[in-house]
Design goal:
This protein has 467 residues and is an alpha+beta fold. It has helices spanning 18-21, 29-45, 92-104, 114-117, 128-138, 156-172, 199-213, 217-221, 225-231, 236-246, 278-294, 298-313, 325-329, 358-371, 433-444; strands at residues 4-10, 49-54, 64-67, 71-76, 81-89, 109-112, 145-150, 177-182, 248-257, 264-273, 334-340, 343-350, 387-394, 398-399, 411-416, 419-423, 453-457, 459-463.
């Protein structure tokens, strides 16, 4: 028996709340009407619990967060609407059951509480990704508890599997439940949005909505990762979890608008049967990795092999014998960067050579990027399939002045006494020399208005899949 009553995709633009829009919300009237229709439908369904999946709670690189105090409250004060507030009861029994089933399947979850967030200076609160959709539910129905989930940066397959576990937990407890996946689509539909315009934004939105209308689960998973990244969306992972909950389905588009450079889609879904695609999803993951490695050079392959060897043997590998001479006879500083679904997962490097060969430099720095970057938890072996690796080989630094710099061509090293800050070239968000210097100074703990020495260097960049 399936105890899920309804499934929805809803956006969360604060401007559709009248107390915030103050008339400007009329530009999204179709979205508002669709959200009201969802609210009325949920009122008729009268669920015991609403499971809401949001991108805007505490996001972890290696776990999914579930709010775990008895109640959770929040307001839209940050959007100048403090009177729009909610205080909701958490369905702890269902939350615990989801976490229990996830633990058995080795899908990592974290129970978020006020006490747990204190050391991180984070508030335990209902985020706007939840408040905005629920605002339109609460206009018609309030007799529900919630399960409040913030997706993590797990693999796409794990997120889908987590959705299946949510479905199992709901059914085991016979809980009458509605599921809302909260998420906006591309943020790059025009230059009016929070990011610069990209033609890929509209393409992403059209593909996702079309696939959802037609129940094409595998097509959603097989979308180009670079296109997803360039869309600058915040709803894709919410959707993946929803797909796991639903199984086989048909989608009904209630509205789609993007007048402010961000795509907002409202959909309802009808479950049509069960679906077993986990084996296919894992096969596709392997094929995607094989294709990427086929178009990768020795530099990034060496970094990946270093990590694989370390997971298998617990120690650093020796330099392989089949490497090009440039990796054996050359010495240079090198940075190894790990990204997971477009998000940094680790980066460690040396600006001057510290080992006898460039190959050894890459082998060691790959391991350090995976396990010694203090910003991240140690890499897990299961993450390797989703990791994209890049290797930057640094030229010897040379003294420079401000007029000699170009953030797209040169990296910089800022030095003041024993303090040193290094920044690689051509980084996203660094478009001017002043921005490059400011960030490098921040990394070093140096006052950018004080005196410091500058060195510049070039990099030879090697990226997986870009041979």
């Amino acid at each position: 028996m399936d105890d899920n009553l309804g499934y929805y995709l809803m956006p969360h633009p604060p401007i559709i709340i009248p107390e915030i829009g103050k008339g400007d919300e009329k530009a999204l009237q179709n979205t508002i009407d669709a959200c009201r229709a969802v609210g009325m439908e949920i009122s008729n369904l009268a669920p015991e619990t609403i499971v809401i999946i949001t991108p805007h709670g505490p996001v972890f690189s290696d776990a999914i967060a579930l709010s775990h105090d008895a109640f959770i409250s929040g307001s839209l004060q940050q959007f100048r609407a403090p009177n729009v507030l909610m205080d909701l009861e958490i369905d702890l029994e269902l939350t615990d059951k989801i976490m229990e089933l996830s633990d058995k399947e080795k899908i990592q979850t974290v129970g978020i509480t006020k006490q747990m967030l204190k050391p991180y200076n984070r508030k335990y609160e209902l985020d706007h990704g939840s408040i905005v959709p629920l605002y339109y539910v609460n206009q018609y129905y309030k007799k529900y508890k919630i399960v409040h989930i913030t997706y993590g940066m797990l693999s796409f397959t794990e997120l889908y599997q987590f959705g299946q576990l949510i479905k199992n937990a709901i059914n085991q407890l016979n809980r009458k439940t509605v599921v809302i996946a909260s998420g906006d689509l591309s943020h790059r539909l025009s230059n009016e949005g929070p990011y610069s315009y990209s033609p890929k934004g509209k393409v992403f939105d059209e593909k996702v909505l079309s696939y959802l209308e037609n129940g094409e689960v595998l097509d959603i998973f097989n979308m180009d990762l670079k296109d997803i990244d360039e869309a600058s969306e915040c709803g894709y992972r919410s959707i993946l979890i929803l797909l796991g909950i639903m199984g086989k389905f048909n989608g009904i588009r209630l509205s789609y608008e993007g007048p402010f450079g961000v795509g907002y889609g409202v959909m309802r879904f009808e479950k049509t049967g069960s679906l077993n695609i986990m084996k296919k999803l894992k096969e596709n993951e392997k094929k995607r990795l094989e294709k990427k490695l086929k178009h990768s050079d020795f530099y990034v392959k060496l970094a990946r092999e270093s990590l694989k060897y370390y997971f298998k043997h617990g120690k650093m590998m020796e330099v392989p014998k089949n490497l090009p001479e440039e990796l054996i006879n050359k010495r240079a500083g090198a940075f190894v960067s790990l990204k997971k679904h477009g998000n940094l997962r680790g980066c460690i490097g040396t600006f001057l050579p510290t080992t006898p060969t460039l190959a050894q430099e890459i082998i060691r720095n790959a391991i350090d990027a995976g396990f010694e970057d203090p910003r991240f938890s140690p890499l897990e072996e299961k993450e390797l399939i989703d990791i994209d690796i890049s290797v930057d080989i640094l030229s010897e630094p040379e003294k420079a002045s401000v007029v000699d710099l170009d953030p797209f061509i040169y990296g910089i090293i800022i030095t003041q006494g024993k303090k040193r800050g290094l920044l690689l070239p051509n980084l996203e968000g660094i478009n001017t020399v002043s921005e490059q210097i400011e960030v490098a100074c921040q990394k070093a703990g140096i006052n950018s208005n004080s005196h410091f020495d500058i060195e510049r260097f070039k990099v030879e960049r090697h990226i997986e899949g870009e041979l």
